[in-house]
From TrEMBL, chain A:
Keywords: Heme, Iron, Metal-binding, Monooxygenase, Oxidoreductase. Belongs to the cytochrome P450 family. It comes from Streptomyces acidicola. The keyword Phosphoprotein does not apply. This is Cytochrome P450. InterPro entries: Cyt_P450, Cyt_P450_B, Cyt_P450_sf. Signal peptide: none annotated.
TrEMBL record, chain B:
Coiled coil: none annotated. One of its GO terms (molecular function) is oxidoreductase activity, acting on NAD(P)H. Residues 9-339 form the FAD/NAD(P)-binding domain. Residues 362-432 form the Reductase C-terminal domain. It comes from the Bacteria. It comes from Streptomyces acidicola. This is FAD-dependent oxidoreductase. Keywords: FAD, Flavoprotein, Oxidoreductase.
Amino acid sequence: MAVDTLLERITDQANRPDPYPLYAELREAGVARQTDGSYLVGTYYDIVSLFHDPRLSSDRRNRAAPYRGLEAEEPEQMLPFIRLDDPEHHRLRSLATRPFGPPHSPDRIDSMRGEIAAITEELLASFHGRTRIDIVDDFAYPLPVTVICRLLGVPREDEPVFREWSGAIIDSVDIRPGEDPTERQRAGIQARAQMGRYLADLADQRRGRPGDDMLSAFVNDPDPAGALTHEELAATAVLLLVAGHETTVNLITNGVLTLLRHRDQLDRLRREPDLMPGAVEELLRYEPPVHMLQRTPLAHVDVAGTTIPKGVPVVLVLASGSRDPKRFRDPDRFDPARQDNRHLGFGSGIHICYGAPLARVEAQIALSALLPHLSTATLAEDPPPYRHSAVLRGPRHLPIEL
Amino acid sequence: MPGDLRDGRIVIVGASLAGLRAAETLREKGFTGSLTVVGEEPHPPYDRPPLSKQVLLGMAAADTTGLPMRPGPPMSPDLPMRPGPPMRPGLPTRQPLDADWRLGVRATGLDLDGKRILLADGDSLPYDRLLIATGTRARPWPRPEQAALEGVLTLRTRDDAARLADRLAAGPRRVLVIGAGFTGSEIASACRERGLPVTVAERGTAPLVGALGGTLAKLATGLHRAHGVDLRCGVTVTDLRGDDSGRFTGADLSDGDRIDADLCVVALGAVRNVEWLADSGLAAGTHGVACDAGCRAFDMYGIVTDDVFVAGDVSRFPHPLFDYQMLSLEHWGNAVEQAEVAAHNMVTPEPRRRPHLAVPVFWSNQFGVNIKSVGVPTFSDQVVIAQGSLRDRRLVAVYGYRGRITAAVTVNMAKWLEHYQRLIETAAPFPPGPGAADGHPLVTEFPLPSDVPDPKGLSHGPTVALTGHLPDRRLTVVRPAG
């Protein structure tokens, strides 16, 4: 089939359960221009090279007119650092990191292990006496949501409120060629503004009365260098809340699905629990939560013999790069003991996933705790129904029989 | 020719990073013969980068930087266990690397004819193939009676670092650092972090000028000054003074000034450990032992040897990206990669041997910034700030030589280095094109002279040096003039 329809086929809901043959076609095609004008890149080394190319912008306001959506008109202060370039990206990401990771908070994630394990046990206790559960609704969604709520300092009971905003935000960044994105984008902007106000208000309530959560840390940093403006705080907090639970749910769910499809590996992990950190890395390679990222070249950029023009959207298909046989031996095999596994699951370069350390710990704890329950479990539906998004790809439900 | 390259006797002289990585690689590549590693220091292999950083800050003890060892392939149970160095505590117990460690004994000579290594204890070791990985040592203060003053130290080994860390912890009134290369600058940085007054004396125009060129070295000057270092450039230390009991009390400078200090660290760069090869007939000189791209040593006539290999800081090797000049490097990454290539080639028949073509990379942490370099910044005529800015102390400086990119240096922006490494590897045109998201058009379009100084005018040695095309410098000396 024509390679310029690859993006349409990849994003087609019918191909959501198994986009990997399309990715193989993409790698074969090299850099492929699509009918909507965007360019797809699916080979490992080309993706890595573009991640490290300073001419590839994460700021959509740099797109040429025909590719510019509503979001391009947003004021800068409302943009989260994931959609900005250095030096602004660096400044905001560094501020956001102060209460989250090294150098200021090197023990933050590690100190949450006990809490994450306790939340996991609580969820597992609810399985008791049931013969059928939905891994998404009963486990993989509530776990990261509860964790990110505790970490940020957001009341867990508000989940129904921000779930809706979050859905609108995720929809607004989905890739749907041939569909006018204006309405989705308008809804996304609105949802971000509402969620931003909600989170900034929560933070304001903690000014001078800090808890041990990150919102408190943002508004009570005694160092003037640590201060975020009101708008910056809102944009950052929205990013962390959305990214903190829309991705890890896929990682855990994909993990369960993959292990139930590879029983030999499931048994092996039960026998050799030390393999779990490597197994999570392999999941991030084999069935990653994030399949694509977009960039905009600020100059004409040559990739693998193709010149991508300035201002045109470039879609980096990470999930394809992580299955590139030129980089990974036997790439379609799920091997928890795989060596030299520098997958693209968390991206690469300056925008490499901020929450990666937390996602790793959550997935390791969650899957380790689930293993004993999975040995006699079976998939009630295979493939399971998938969420609409081709970018953040994962099952909507994963019913299993215990 | 030996029948099976995976059998026989291999001796590695040098038990630091390169020696260890080579030993591990030999076993991984299936070498089953006898493997002996000779090391002058009594310690098992340890890591040096933390010695001028975490150790001086008291964050880690000098004896905790031992390198982890990759085990060899499973040994058959009836093989006798050879004595090995102790494993690093806290690591899971692993099968020790199958090698005979001769630690605490120096190699004193090489008999190429008899294929033997002579050792300081009178013993000799026969070999079928030899790897020379003797590295470097700290260049001492040139006047021995002054170098012997109590309170005059150098920094290269783990014992050096332990001594210096103790002295710093005792709170000297002032520390004098002679030489502002990477080691000297990191020591000065550690002193300031500990709140100690420190004077740095450098013969060149700026700290790090030998590695970065004069233009970017201005940033290093700014770092020293901003952190309260008493920085004296363009001066030499003429004498170290001591009191009646032989304790260091201060130094005289060439500009007539005197520095009162009670601790002195001599950071004048490195000396290659080649003296033991002086009569061997190998091409061994002040810049190291010359070898080909496959790590095989040259003899003094420029003939490549069959069974003698070189890796790490002690080697000089030709590099296609830098006009095939012989490169001399003192970099962690080079020691690892060259050792792996040398080990591969030692047990691999000729057609499947690999060249050592890695682009030089090194890093330094000092005064709260991370400096990382790829390529050879001193192989340049121009430099341009391609990303970031001097003002923010976050930047990428790209170096060019006759219109192509030969190096890049990042300050707090190491994540971009990979991109520039690829440009260097492909000899991309200099200056790099426009379009960097965080570039400043008015800056990126105007390259400046990189202002690379003659290394003879510096107190510090460059950690990367291009040393000409000739395998043996001694031959150049006897060439008749005119």
